[in-house]
Write a structure and sequence with these properties.
Blueprint (H helix, E strand, L loop, with lengths): L34 H21 L1 E8 L1 H12 L1 H9 L2 E8 L5 H5 L6 H8 L41 H12 L2 H18 L13 H9 L5 H6 L1 H15 L1 H22 L2 H8 L16 H15 L6 H19 L6 H6 L1
Parallel strand pairs: 1-2
Helix pairs in contact: 1-2, 5-10, 6-7, 6-10, 7-10, 8-10, 11-13, 12-14
Protein name: SCFD2 protein
Organism: Oxyruncus cristatus (sharpbill)
InterPro entries: Sec1-like
Length: 345
């Protein structure tokens, strides 16, 4: 979007976590990093220099976090970057921030944002880090309940050639979910009116079913389908996200995170873990509303990120052991572990 540019090539770059005996958060130079990470840092510096060259920037670097300081220092001393800064006409301040300093933000569910939900719940477009697969079967005469139907190519979110879709995507990113869904309806109604489709405008709350009924109007009109294909993909993504079971879980996450924040403030970490323990259920005991193993890993990352430094003690050690045991059992009982769990185990 106009305000946000993602660099998926750098998606796997994470600062090394300080482990026992590993480099601490104190100043470390590039030489102290593992060889693979050194190569990644040099690649980032080269990529950023190319980006800043294209934008004609003369940058001033600021850094928050150990790895960010290394990258900022490398960029400052990089020979091509020094040459570029002598001739560039535009000035910019660049702030590097270590991703591990905001894990609570990455795993929290506080955003009332449709774009975030779409990117979180729909399956990734193969080979892409920042785009999703939108099921297009609804726009065809093929009626199948098979989720993995691969006869129809999936749609996606990137619609650079469709001005209406681009405008709608901006509102998905910048508006609250309720407003964004209303924008989706408005764009659909405008497109249908332009194509003289028999649309009945209704006021009040927008439901996924209502959006689906509007989309079906385009189905048998090939010209209308072609003219508004980008827009229809974004609205289909909205419908599929709103109906997705993970979206209804989103509110459970949010409620639980708020409860945890209150509990952490009032009591010890051990009692928070003990609260969590009975909720960790194996595959056979779970209903669709219960948390999965991944959900718990996300919650644990959230709790430990929010709490910060923790005083270790017998009670906490015992509580942590119980949670570990329950999680290991749950992970071992998974009939088909997800790629993430396979990677972890």
């Amino acid at each position: 979007s106009a305000e946000l540019c993602l660099l998926p090539a750098l998606a796997t770059l994470l600062p090394p976590l300080p482990g026992p005996g590993g480099p601490g958060p104190a100043e470390v130079g590039l030489g102290a990093l593992p060889a693979e990470l050194q190569a990644a840092v040099r690649a980032v510096v080269g990529d950023l220099d190319a980006l800043f060259s294209a934008l004609g920037l003369r940058e001033e670097n600021f850094a928050v976090g150990a790895l960010s300081r290394i990258i900022a220092a490398e960029l400052a001393g990089y020979a091509p970057a020094r040459n570029r800064r002598r001739t560039a006409t535009n000035k910019a301040s660049v702030v590097f921030v270590d991703r591990t300093l905001d894990l609570a933000g990455a795993v929290g569910h506080h955003g009332d944002n449709l774009a975030e939900k779409i990117l979180s719940v729909l399956p990734k477009l193969p080979g892409h880090k920042t785009d999703v697969m939108v099921n297009m079967v609804e726009l065809t005469a093929l009626q199948t309940t098979d989720e993995t139907c691969s006869i129809i190519a999936p749609g996606c979110l990137a619609q650079p050639n469709d001005p209406a879709a681009k405008a709608l995507w901006e509102s998905f990113m910048n508006l609250k979910q309720k407003e964004a869904v209303m924008e989706a309806r408005r764009h659909l109604v405008e497109a249908a009116s332009r194509e003289n489709l028999p649309i009945k405008m209704s006021m009040g709350r927008v439901t996924p079913e209502q959006l689906s009924s509007y989309i079906k109007l385009f189905k048998n009109n090939l010209k209308a389908l072609e003219n508004h294909c980008g827009l229809l993909q974004l609205v289909l993504a909205t419908v599929q996200t709103l109906k997705h079971p993970q979206t209804s879980k989103w509110d459970n996450f949010l409620a639980f995170e708020r409860l945890l924040l209150q509990t952490v403030g009032e009591s010890e970490m051990a009692s928070v873990l003990n609260q969590l323990l009975p909720m960790i259920k194996s595959y056979n005991e779970r209903t669709k509303d219960d948390y999965t193993c991944e959900d718990f890993l996300v919650l644990l990352v959230y709790i430990y990120s929010v709490v910060g430094e923790i005083e270790s003690g017998k009670e906490l050690d015992a509580a942590e052991e119980e949670v570990k045991k329950a999680l290991v059992k749950a992970i071992c009982d998974e009939p088909e572990p997800s790629p993430l769990l396979q990677k972890i185990t």
